[in-house]
Design goal:
53% of the residues lie in helices and 12% in strands. The chain contains ten helices and five strands; from the N terminus they run βαααααβαβααβαβα.
């Protein structure tokens, strides 16, 4: 029996799924999807733990690729993405309120900065029970320790948790951890998936 539903922030509760941003960066740098994932996931944990900034992460990646001259072009894409991530998806907030009214615990688990965590709390604290952010906890999805910490904060077992994320990478430990995952692509698709699980 499910008792809690967790949500990623960027690409789910705010902004658009990361696939669009990723594709723009792949096109800019002339990378295949696999090449992009390889170099991004090589470095991303340091940024998500708050050890380096978002800018430092991407300067490192561009330097490693020998494409430092594309920094300004990257910044334009990045600035547009950051702006989108400050826009909360109201349909999702309404859905969360509906789920809370049904008695489910609701939480946010995000690979993000401390600044983003403050923004989440400012905008969403009234709608969720728990907010866990990697730069504060040190746990980066898909690390199982992060999901265990999240479930504990919600007061549920992992088997009682559904987690919604737009990143396949963030969900790849779902089976081992024991929670039910939903890969987010759109609001309508999410509603259908929750209906299949008899949550709605």
């Amino acid at each position: 029996m499910y008792k809690a539903i967790g949500f990623d922030y960027g690409g789910v509760l705010a902004g658009e799924p990361a696939k669009g941003f990723n594709q723009k960066i792949q096109d800019l740098l002339g990378l295949s999807e696999d090449e992009y994932k390889t170099i991004y996931f090589k470095h991303y944990k340091k940024s998500n733990r708050g050890e380096i900034s978002w800018e430092e992460l991407w300067k490192t990646i561009l330097d490693e690729l020998g494409q430092s001259e594309k920094w300004q072009d990257f910044q334009k894409i990045s600035d547009a993405q950051v702006k989108k991530l400050k826009t909360i998806n109201q349909d999702l907030v309404n859905l969360i309120d509906t789920l809370k009214a049904k008695g489910y615990k609701i939480g946010i688990l995000s690979n993000n900065s401390k600044e983003a965590a403050e923004h989440m709390r400012l905008k969403l604290s009234d709608h969720v029970d728990v907010i866990r952010v990697s730069a504060e906890t040190g746990f980066v999805k898909p690390e199982s320790a992060g999901f265990k910490d999240f479930a504990k904060a919600l007061g549920v077992d992992l088997s009682q948790l559904i987690f919604v994320d737009d990143s396949e990478n963030s969900l790849k430990t779902a089976k081992d951890c024991g929670f039910t995952d939903i890969l987010y692509r759109s609001y309508d698709q999410l509603v259908q998936d929750l209906q299949k699980l008899e949550i709605l």
